[in-house]
Amino acid sequence: MFLAIDVGNTQGTLGLYDETGTMRHGWRMATTASDTSDTLRSRLGGYLHMDGFDYADVTEAGVACVVPTLSRAWDRCLTEVLGHAPLMVLPGDDYGMEIRMPNPRSLGADRIANAIAARADYGAPVIVVDFGTATNIDVVDATGAYRGGTISPGLMVSAAALFDRAAKLSDVPIEAPAHVLGDTTETAVQSGLVIGAAAQVEGLVARIKTELGIESAPVVGTGGLARTVSHATDVFCRVDPDLTLRGIRDIWLRVNNR
Q1: Which residue in 3, 68, 205, 207 has a CA-CA distance of 20 to 30 Å to 18?
Q2: CB–CB of 48/40 below 8 Å?
Q3: Quick one: which of 168, 120, 128 has its CA closest to 147?
Q4: Angle in degrees, CA 174, 244, 232, rounded to 5
Q5: DSSP string computed for 135-177
Q6: Which residue intervals of the chain are DSSP H helices?
Q7: Exposed (0-12), middle (13-18) or buried (19+): which is 157, by Cβ within 10 Å?
Q8: What gap in Å lies between CA 13 and CA 55, rounded to an integer?
Q9: Sheet holding 146-153, edge to edge
């Protein structure tokens, strides 16, 4: 089976796929930049064994990682597990999508995977909004080329900054309130954070569509808080939490001519 791993700045996701492309199981793993290959192998083994799998079930793997030290650690870890090197998604490599940017190597591996999976599953043009440590918007134009996007502080980063700087505000559940106009401190904070994030995405997506002339482009939400934000907006045609993992698998299939 194929193991896809998306390592973000705060947490990672792992998905184990069978030969038909069906995800058999998925996991979330906190990102710790100091993890060694031995630590990662132990944690991976724990996840697999807990759900009835074993190292022997993993025959191929691919990784999209935005933390350089962990890229090296995952490479070593999976080489030991597989007996050969895994696919490491690298900015600037040719994965069958033209990157229309001055410096293609500046594009994060997760954003490449998102764009490739979105084009494969939703066509072109398409827009992806990924809610992680940062909120990333990635755009594939009508020709199927990657055109760029936006990067802004993620919802949880904004929440942490607010709670840290405003002593009278305590942590509140990160969920969409029933109304924009909050009538308690809690609902006011929820409105500002969640509905505010939704409104930001709506505004940016509208401007992107106008700028590129792609008004009919579907908008796909992914990432840990996509479903939460989706309750406050109708901008998404679909919330697709496994988009990045499928993109990693799609890249592996192309690289290996499958």
Answers
A1: 68
A2: no
A3: 128
A4: 30
A5: EEEEEE-TTS-EEEEEEEE-HHHHHHHHHHH-TT------S--
A6: 37-50, 68-82, 109-122, 155-165, 185-190, 196-212, 226-230, 243-255
A7: middle
A8: 17
A9: 146-153, 134-140, 126-131, 219-223, 238-239
User: CA 97, 100, 105, 106 torsion: positive or negative?
Assistant: negative
Contact in structure between 172 and 179 (CB atoms under 8 Å): no
pLDDT 10s per residue in the chain (258 long)? 999 999 999 999 999 999 999 999 999 999 999 999 999 999 999 999 999 999 999 999 999 999 999 999 999 999 999 999 999 999 888 899 999 999 999 999 999 999 999 999 999 999 999 999 999 999 999 999 999 999 999 999 999 898 888 877 777 889 999 999 999 999 999 999 999 999 999 999 999 999 999 999 999 999 999 999 999 999 999 999 999 999 999 999 999 987
The two tokens of residue 81 are: 């597990």
How many angstroms from the chain centroid is the CA of residue 50?
Answer: 24
- Partnered with residue 220 across adjacent β-strands are 128, 238
Angle between helices 243-255 and 109-122 (to 10 degrees): 90
Q: How many angstroms separate the Cα of 226 from the Cα of each of 18, 75, 206, 241?
A: 26, 29, 18, 8
In this structure, what is the dihedral angle of CA atoms 126, 140, 87, 37, given to the nearest 10 degrees?
A: -80
Active site residue 234: no
Instruction: Give the C-alpha separation, 256 to 39, whole Å.
Output: 29
Regarding pTM above 0.90, the answer is yes
* Residue environment code for 30-46, b if the CB has 16+ CB neighbours within 10 A, otherwise e: ebeeebebeebbebbee
The active-site residue, picked from 110, 130, 138, 141, is 110
Q: In this structure, are residues 57 and 217 in contact, taking their beta carbons and an 8 Å threshold?
A: no
Question: Do the beta carbons of residue 67 and residue 73 sit within 8 Å?
Answer: no
